[in-house]
From TrEMBL:
GO terms for biological process: lipid catabolic process. GO terms for molecular function: hydrolase activity. It holds the Pfam family Patatin. A motif (DGA/G) lies at residues 144-146. Residues 1-157 form the PNPLA domain. It comes from Candidatus Phosphoribacter hodrii. This is Patatin-like phospholipase family protein. Keywords: Hydrolase, Lipid degradation, Lipid metabolism. Residues 219-258 are annotated as: Disordered. Residues 240-258 have a biased composition (Basic and acidic residues). It comes from the Bacteria. Residues 229-238 have a biased composition (Pro residues). A motif (GXSXG) lies at residues 19-23.
C-alpha cells in the first residue's frame, strides 16, 4: 500500500505520517521516497535470516534483531535516506510504548538527528521478549508501540489531525485475538523483569484493540484501506472457521526450483 502511494505520487498530500512497529518502518521508507526499493528485502532469505533467527534464543540473544535491521540492513544493504526523513516537511511520528508507564508515546519530539531516528525506529519495533530488552532513547526506555496502541489513530486525532487514512494489513474480521494462557504468562514474566510498567498495557491490549476497531469503523474523519476478504491470509495468521480459502504456508508460496 505504501508503495502504491509512492508510485501514484500521493505522498505529498499528507501532513504527517504515524506508524507503529512495522508500520513505522514503512512510514519511514515512504518519507524517504524509497518504499519500492526496500519491498523485495522482506522476502530476501539472506537478509531475513539476519533479522529473524529463532536459534538465537538458544544463546540468549534476540530472535528479532532490530539493531541489525536498522543499523546494517538500512545502512549498508538497502540504504534508508535518513536525512530525507529528517528534512521532510511531512512530519514523522513513530509510536512506542514507554517501559515505565506503559503508555503510547509519540517519539517525534525525541528525534533530532540520524542517531535518534534510528533509535526511534528500533524503539517502535521492539517486540517484547523476541527483540530483547527495551531500547534506550533520551534517557527513557521504549518497547514496541503495539503494546499500547495497535493503530496510532488515537494519537493522530489527539494531536489535531483533521482526516486520517489508515493502512491496515489485516483483512476485515481478521482482528487481534486474546493471547492464550501460556503466551500471556510468558510475556508477563518477561515484562515483570524488564518493563513492569508495561504489564497493564499487555493485559489490556485486546480490549484496547477492540476499542480501536470501533473508532476506526465509526469515526467520520477516518478512512481505512485494508486487504479485501478474498485476499489470501498471511502465513501464520488465524482465519475464521467459515474461511474456505487455502491455508497458505511459506513453503507453498515459495517459487518452485528451476
Amino acid at each position: 500500500m505504501v508503495v502504491a502511494i509512492e508510485d501514484l505520487g500521493l505522498t505529498t498530500v499528507f501532513d504527517a505520517v504515524y506508524g507503529v512497529s512495522g508500520g513505522a518502518l514503512n512510514g519511514a521508507w515512504l518519507l524517504c521516497g524509497r518504499a519500492a526499493q526496500v519491498m523485495d528485502t522482506w522476502w530476501n532469505r539472506e537478509v531475513m535470516r539476519g533479522v529473524i533467527a529463532p536459534r538465537r534464543a538458544l544463546r540468549g540473544r534476540p530472535v528479532v534483531d532490530t539493531d541489525y535491521l536498522v543499523n546494517t540492513v538500512y545502512v549498508d544493504l538497502v540504504p534508508m535516506d535518513f536525512a530525507a526523513i529528517l528534512g521532510n516537511s511531512i512530519t514523522f511520528h513513530p509510536i512506542a510504548t514507554d517501559a515505565e508507564s506503559g503508555l503510547a508515546v509519540d517519539l517525534a519530539p525525541l528525534i533530532h538527528d540520524e542517531s535518534t531516528l534510528r533509535l526511534a525506529l528500533r524503539s517502535s519495533t521492539g517486540i517484547p521478549l523476541l527483540a530483547g530488552p527495551p531500547v534506550h532513547l533520551a534517557g527513557r526506555r521504549f518497547m514496541d508501540g503495539g503494546l499500547a496502541e495497535m493503530v496510532p489513530v488515537r494519537t493522530a486525532l489527539a494531536q489535531g489531525a483533521t482526516h486520517a487514512v489508515v493502512l491496515r494489513t489485516r483483512r476485515p474480521g481478521e482482528d487481534l485475538r486474546p493471547p492464550g494462557n501460556m503466551q500471556f504468562h510468558i510475556i508477563r514474566r518477561y515484562l515483570k523483569r524488564h518493563a513492569a510498567g508495561a504489564i497493564p498495557a499487555w493485559r489490556n491490549r485486546y480490549a484496547v484493540a477492540q476499542d480501536e476497531e470501533k473508532l476506526l469503523a465509526t469515526h467520520p474523519r477516518v478512512r481505512q484501506i485494508r486487504p479485501p476478504r478474498t485476499a489470501p491470509p498471511c502465513p501464520g495468521r488465524p482465519v475464521g472457521p467459515d474461511d474456505s480459502r487455502p491455508r497458505w504456508t511459506w513453503a507453498e508460496r515459495r517459487p518452485a526450483p528451476p
